[in-house]
Design brief:
The protein is an alpha/beta fold. It has one domain: TIM Barrel, CATH 3.20.20. 46% of the residues lie in helices and 14% in strands. It contains twelve helices and ten strands. The longest helix is centred in the middle third of the chain and has 18 residues. The relative contact order is 0.14.
């Protein structure tokens, strides 16, 4: 069964949880650069998630596009960090799990709000997508996007390099007019635009919503599209304690919130910031 068939046929698909905050817990800087500098740690986290019984692992390549790497002066090779990211995830996945190539924002605003053109964003995403596809991923996940236009650039790039499933996840926050991304894109606008692009699943991750609040977004997405819906919330709302960002939702509480998301219609579930293998195992036990 390929990934497209899994998405179509399995009632609930379990993805892994956070990589960045797990690396931080181990005393490392968060980010894909660890694929090159600390591959053993990345592999160990991938393996822990695999042992939880999830269906899909996500590569540690979130913002490893040329623009982000350059502006953040990471001093690493786009090719090496993405190829290594795929290799590490596939090593942990073995022949049992699927692997999604992870793509996220360039970290810059598109014109006219910033100085990044859509063409430059597209070319950066295309380069990264080609590296991920060349490494052998089963599909792409474009996640933590706050601008639907940037997300669409990434979708177009993925489509132009490989015929693989594409999952797109936006980051929403509560507002007086309902949930919107930081750039003001509503759930309805995102659902419509992504559905028209023919992606395989859409959803929400990260943002400023706890699992229970994300259930509302899942329900609203379900009203706007017939596509499978993804839900990957953080382990609660972020709190600043002793100058550190803390996510303090327990695995049991997280699983309870994920049950609400599933009841609201989510068919792909996993975790974002602050989640750990214990959180994903709690969801697995729930399923």
């Amino acid at each position: 069964m390929n990934l497209s068939e899994l998405i179509l046929n399995k009632d609930v698909i379990l993805l892994d949880g956070a990589m960045g905050t797990e690396l931080a817990t181990s005393g490392l800087e968060m980010g894909g650069q660890n694929n090159v500098t600390h591959p053993d740690m990345v592999l160990a986290i991938h393996k822990e998630y695999a042992e939880c019984g999830c269906d899909i692992l996500i590569t540690n390549t979130l913002t490893m596009n040329r623009i982000y790497i350059k502006t953040h002066q990471l001093g690493i090779s786009v090719k090496e960090v993405n190829q290594q990211g795929v290799q590490l995830a596939k090593s942990a996945a073995g022949n049992r799990l699927y692997v999604l190539g992870d793509i996220s924002s360039t970290g810059k605003l598109l014109e006219p709000y910033g100085d990044l053109s859509e063409e430059d964003a597209y070319q950066a995403f295309k380069e990264q997508a080609a590296l991920l596809a060349g490494g052998g991923v089963d599909g792409f996940i474009i996640e933590t996007m706050i601008d639907i236009n940037e997300a669409l650039c990434a979708v177009r790039a993925c489509k132009n390099v490989a015929s693989l499933p594409i999952i797109v996840s936006m980051a929403f926050a509560n507002s007086k007019n309902g949930e919107h991304t930081m750039m003001g894109n509503s759930v309805k606008v995102c659902a419509k635009a992504l559905t028209e692009q023919g992606v395989h699943a859409i959803g929400a991750n990260c943002g400023d919503l706890d699992p229970s609040q994300m259930a509302s977004v899942v329900a609203k997405l379900g009203q706007e599209t017939s596509l499978p819906i993804l839900s990957m919330p953080n382990a609660g709302m972020p709190k600043l304690i002793d100058n550190q960002t803390v996510f303090d939702l327990s695995p049991k509480e997280f699983a309870s919130g994920m049950a609400e998301c599933i009841n609201a219609g989510a068919r792909l579930v996993g975790g974002c910031c602050g989640t750990s293998p214990a959180h994903i195992l709690a969801v697995k036990n729930l399923l």
